[in-house]
Amino acid sequence: MPRDLGDVIHYFIPEAAARREEASAHPPPRSADARERRAVVAIPVGDGDVLRAAFAWNLCVELARAGAEASLVAARDESSEAVWPGDGPGPLGCRVALLDRAPAAEIARTALAQAAERSGGRARCVLACVPELALREVAAGPDAPGTWLVLCAADDDGRRRAAAAVLDIARAAPAARIGATIHGVRSIAEARTAFDALASATDAAIPRPIASYGLVADDLHLYRAILSQRPVGLAHPQSPAARTLADVAALLVEDIGGAADA
Predict the structure, then answer these.
(1) Do 181 and 195 meet the contact criterion of CB atoms below 8 Å apart?
(2) Residue among 83, 59, 95, 51 nearest 233 (CA)
């Protein structure tokens, strides 16, 4: 029998073979910069959305712990800057680029430029925090990311918000890979219910089903880490939040690395 959330998470997340089969059935665009676009993971973040900003930063650190060369690009925002360090290198070599009064297109352009840098053989992953009101603009733009990660709360309002984001992205960029991570849950069953509801609300209206990028457990350690401006994976590496974030990071590294040479 599984012992805790960290032990049972893979009952919810699709296994690697199934993910590779789905990816081969729906290959990304074969443009010259397909690899770089795939390495940019855009995360919709609302104005003043401290929680999603904190998830993005903590996920960046977990990507580095998973062996990727990770960075984060976002517009400078007083409400969210308190949850991540300033410009430049951070823990485990993670980089943060905060752009002053930057339009969403500049965030995407900067992220794509970072993804194109040489990585010394390591998988590169650039997280781009894209304002929710600019999802269609970025998805349809010349520097559009190839991968989108929608953070979905398990309640009704969270699912509606996530579904609206998925539909906006898919309508603007039908070839984009869109995945969802369910956050703030206390059980696998709660996460499964939320993901199934999100899929039911979107699958019929988008070209390809959304992918599961796991869950992030509801965990007091995460909120304490946000307040102390310390990544939960370094401050409390055995906590449920850190362990589930690590699983999300591992799935992203696998997808980006597996598709890099396709």
Answers:
(1) no
(2) 59
Q: Are strands 124-131 and 69-75 parallel, antiparallel or unpaired?
A: parallel
Using CA atoms, how far residue 196 sits from 11, 39, 107, 148, in Å, is: 14, 26, 31, 18
Q: Give Dmax (Cα) for the chain.
A: 51
CA distance 203 to 207: 8
Q: For the chain, how many helices (H) and strands (E)?
A: 12, 8
Beta carbons within 8 Å of 55's beta carbon, 6+ residues apart: 43, 151, 183, 216, 245
Distance CA 51, CA 80 (A): 8
pLDDT single digits (tens) 114-155: 998 866 667 889 999 999 999 999 999 999 999 999 999 999
Cα–Cα distances in angstroms (integers) from residue 18 to residues 46, 200, 253, 255, in the given order: 32, 20, 16, 12
Is the sign of the CA dihedral 74, 76, 82, 85 positive or negative? positive
